[in-house]
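hi! just following up on the protien thing from before. the input was this:
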Amino acid sequence: MAKLNIFLRRRSVLAAAAAAIGLGGASAAVAQPDLVDFKVVDRETGQPLRVWRHHGRFFVAGEPGRKYALRVTNHTGGRLLVVMSVDGVNILSGETAGVDQRGYVFDPYQTWDLTGWRKSDSEVAAFVFAPLPKSYAARTGRPADVGVIGVAAFREKAAPLPPPPPVYSPPVSAQTTIRGGARAADSGDRFTPPPPSPLPGSAAPMAMPPAAPAARASRPVNEATVTGARLHRDDEKLGTGHGEREWSVVRTVEFERATNRPEMVQQIEYDTYDRLVAAGVIRAVDHPPRPFPMKPDGEGYVPDPPPEY
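and the predicted 3d structure came back as:
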């Protein structure tokens, strides 16, 4: 089974301490918008949710009780560390999110669906849209940032090159011409070069995870459930609940960041469709045209249009 990697912060504590900034404050560090790509995916259909842009911000509409995943793709030829948050909470550690925290390590060009809050190396609690009071952030006393998903990406620091081998000059012989004159060899002045030192050994390469499978539709085993969930009110903000436990395998690896600040930060906000319409993010008539909006009532033919006046 393919596995995804968790960043081990042992090597990056000092660098991370200098980067203790929030996701919002790190937005100025965005340097390459296509470093990674992430989408919010409906797990029932396997399709990304439609994204609306409003005043430079991005939104998706969720439906209470539906499971979703975060589909992340590494567009680079090197490993990337991606720190992710939902509702202002780190999805891996459960801490109030900061870009200096642990995240997932993606191999070159790897795509993976993150399906829930990490509970162990082999289990997650599913992401499921839920009323704000039933969201994980609200239930843990942190409702202020409910309704936003964020990613912060870091490149890996390149390993230093080994020093070049020492260079030795050959001994000067009796026939060597120096500045146009011959130098007589002195039998007592013999030069014996020291034996060459062994080249510095290179550390054993870190075991790389097997390539992840291409992104594909992921269907839940059971319907999404939220403990104690009640009917959702139309005027109630949407959050992300702590859903049922699911199998999801990862392993821990070392990763040293190339920079103190993330090279890319992105965020997507979400709420119910009706609340996004009420906020002006979605126009009430903004829906794709339907090829068959109604079923025919009979077997007649095309009627004439109304007369023009």
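The longest strand covers residues 238-247.
DSSP finds three helices and 18 strands in the chain.
cheers
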